[in-house]
Specification:
With 304 residues, the chain is of the alpha+beta class. The protein has nine helices and 21 strands. It has two domains: 133 residues, 3-Layer(aba) Sandwich (Rossmann fold), CATH 3.40.50.10330; 159 residues, Tumour Suppressor Smad4. It is globular and about 55 Å long. 47% of the residues are buried. The protein binds adenosine-5'-triphosphate. Adenosine-5'-triphosphate binds next to α2 and α3.
């Protein structure tokens, strides 16, 4: 844990993250709590995908800002992380997304007053994001990237249903996909060694889709991934993996392999959907490695 001096705070709000229409209310409450403590605050809203990166870069370039708050889910956090990477600005998270996995992983506050107190107290922890290269370009991910069944589900989930019912929308998408998905065999290169799998998840942390344990040995502060390879294909195997995830036994399944690595490449088959931090993110081929630029994240002083 390191401490950082407080200057001004920029709050970036993704108005489409999570469920319902309350992200702006959360951001307003956080801004109020910070202003009451005498902190200068700027609130800006994203207009479209990728805009959070541009807004974070602009805040860093403008200078004077010590913290940038990502108001959204893991996708928004990743975009803000990319915008402030390489600077001394601290990333704070106001978790109003759907799954908010990074916030759960790091035990970050979900309450605005507690987040304001954490920012003011200045405690931070360091994480090493993943860098993802696809045909669409380079991006960062803070929690995970995947190819296979889960990426297909992310690509096919209805955005309107996600807005209306949150994580339940993924359940609908899973049930629809189980018998329709074609389950191709992936060729996954993990630190140079080739493996075959029906699905692969490259995970920076231990958790997945909320609080479910995917890769227990993964720690955000380490410069490594856990690569989770699913050995069996088909609807019944996928159902078993899903139930095991819910019951916390997925890492113990005989046909699930978890490897520690720093580079991963999935070149074939080409054209398969890719998910990054739970959002659709182009298609294979992909390459992933650990960023050489760490991100400092504001944490509750009481938990670390
Ligand atoms: N103004 C905007 N309009 C449309 N999409 C946006 C806008 N701002 C950001 N986005 C995109 O919204 C997507 C979803 O955001 P985010 O991941 O933060 O929320 P979520 O999916 O609800 O939460 P989680 O990732 O925790 O499940 C991201 O891919 C981001 O690029």
């Amino acid at each position: 844990m390191t401490m950082t001096a407080l200057r001004s705070v920029t709050i970036i709000v993704n108005p489409t993250a999570g469920r319902g229409r309350r992200r702006t209310d959360h951001a307003t409450r956080l801004a109020g709590a910070l202003r009451r403590a005498g902190v200068a605050v700027q609130v800006v809203h994203t207009r479209d995908r990728g805009h959070a990166t541009a807004l974070a870069r602009a805040a860093v370039r403008h200078g004077g800002c010590s913290h940038i708050v990502a108001t959204g889910g893991d996708g928004t956090v990743a975009e803000v992380a990319r915008g402030l990477a390489g600077s001394d600005v601290v990333l704070a998270v106001l978790p109003v997304g759907t799954a908010n996995v990074l916030a759960r992983e790091l035990d970050l506050p979900f309450d605005e007053d507690l987040l304001a107190r954490s920012i003011i107290a200045g405690a931070t922890t360091t994480v090493w994001p993943g860098v993802l290269h696809t045909a669409q370009g380079m991006s960062l991910f803070v929690q995970m990237a995947g190819v296979g069944f889960d990426a297909h589900v992310v690509h096919t989930v209805s955005p309107r249903l996600k807005q209306a019912v949150g994580r339940g929308a993924y359940v609908v998408s899973v049930l629809r996909a189980l018998w329709r998905y074609r389950y191709p065999v992936l060729r996954v290169e993990v630190d140079g060694a080739v493996h075959e799998a029906s699905s692969a998840i490259i995970s920076k942390g231990a958790l997945y889709a909320g609080r479910h344990v995917l890769a227990p040995a993964s720690v955000q502060g380490e410069k490594a991934f856990s690569v989770v390879l699913f050995g069996k294909a088909g609807p019944w195997a996928t159902l078993r993996y899903g139930l095991a995830l819910l019951r916390g036994t997925l890492p113990r399944q005989k046909d699930v392999t978890i490897l520690r690595a720093t580079t991963v490449a999935i070149a074939a088959p080409a054209g398969l959907p890719v998910q990054s931090d739970g959002d659709a993110h182009g298609h294979t081929a992909i390459r992933a490695h650990i960023s050489d630029q760490p991100i400092r994240i504001a944490i509750c002083p009481r938990v670390r």
